[in-house]
Predict the 3D structure of the following.
Amino acid sequence: MPDVITDNIDLWTSALLSKSTAGRGSNGKLEAYGIKKLRGLILELAVRGKLVPQEPNDRPASEILNEIAAEKKQLVKEGKIQVPKPLPEISVEEMNYSLPKGWEWVRFGTIAQHNSGKTLDSGRNTGQLRDYITTSNLYWGRFDLDNIRQMQITDKEIEKCTAIKGDLLICEGGEAGRAAVWPYDHDVCFQNHIHRARFYGELDPYYLYRFFEKLNATGEIDLHRKGVGISNMSSKALALIVLSLPPLAEQHRIVAKIDELMALCDQLEQQQTNNIEAHQTLVETLLGTVTNVESQHELSEAWTRISNHFDTLFTTEQSIDQLKQTILQLAVMGKLVPQDPNDEPASVLLDKIAKEKKKLVKEGGIKKQKELTEIVEDEKPFAVPIIWEFSYLQDLCELITDGTHQTPTYTVEGRPFISAQCVKPFRFLPENCRFVSENDYQDYIKSRKPEYRDVLLARVGAGIGEAALIDTDLEFAIYVSTGLLKPFKDFILSEYLVLWLNSPDGRNNSEKSTYGKGVSQGNLNLSLIRSFVVSVPPLAEQHRIVAKVNELMILCDTLKARLADAQTTQVHLADTIVEQAVA
């Protein structure tokens, strides 16, 4: 086994890359980049003759090619195949690395009979119904036979579109070039978007499969594809692929060593997955103890446990995000900053809001809202400090509404028109807006004009419940997908309200109030938004909470930036080692 593989195991397993989607080689939002590079390196070393030692007694590949040429002549003579079309000589540019003694460069079409299968045409096909596979059954190195279909195939057609054990099957369409060796004792038919390659002479089909896997790992396979999105690989393109061919005995040794090393990669990947999951469980458990404590002494002990292991706990993007959520939850529970007995209690604050609201209704400044029933103990999600209170969201706001329900007519320029995609947690993104005419804008803002330090809430789409402060004097209209909240700003900090809406408690209110979950996009009903039960601190404490959260969020963002830099360094190291190993 090459030292470059074993000497860098720690790097292969630690080089992680953040990603948004899951798949092979991913752990939630992390891609096992190092192990992915290691797999590619193993394949690259294999086809260059650097993975296993050469044996001087092996029959050279040139003898194999001579035997293949003789076999073809005999098959032509017997009328079993047509005279093969000559393939162009391999150019110096196509021989892009040096081969060991006993190896040869060869085009794929020289060593394989290949053709695509039967076209499905229910109106024209005749013959017996037979099982057949499509590209949806063919994956890298394996077959999924759970969904086998049938079509009519005549006895005359059967040989051309049947795969036997040891044939290499290659996708012509879809992910063109994706390949696997048919490993079963029973034969199977295949349709026209699959190439069947049956090799002349004595060649190891699994070595040829690994060569295609190498092309995929390096991206070279794209050179043999046509099309954007859904690609294809024609029979001509397949025949022209240039590959390095070792002696037969070495092919077997290479395949065995690749299998061994890929099994090691699988183990490393599973170990990595287990470690990440265990780490995340530990983080969630320890942070959970912080939000579940009942006394200041228990809170201090819980934070001490975490701070003593801070450097080992918060080492992933996910763990830092969990820390952020814990900070927000502590903030809205009254556990983030100490209470000041001199603060005016929240009960007095709510009385002032009620008087202000009554005055505005009397003056016609706002409409009278339907009163909600008194909050009962079961509606309170947790205990709060004695000078805090719980309140319905509608009792903290002059107005809770949404944007126009009219289908807008967009213009190239004009007044900004904001939808839910412009609202992310703590971030108002007007640059993502579209535009409407001045007349439409004036119509849309009647009784719902967004203003500086109002709050926007996404109520339709993937980000339901996400909230942001309007931190600009920009004049704009909003769409129905966006909620508009106008808090009584003399008594309720808009920043605190945004903080609460984005906290786990606020998001839980949004989650349980969303209609149509799992159907279309779902939506957050305005009447239910108004009935959110909000924890309300004294005004002075709201200021202290917002300041402390801002301070801690900057710390978390700094941790993320350092983590991203470290990940980038590890990824670059993995790339460099691979480049040097195959140079």
Observations:
- The two ends are 18 Å apart (CA to CA).
- The first strand starts at residue 17 and ends at 18.
- The chain has a mean pLDDT of 90.
- The chain is about 40% helix and 15% strand.
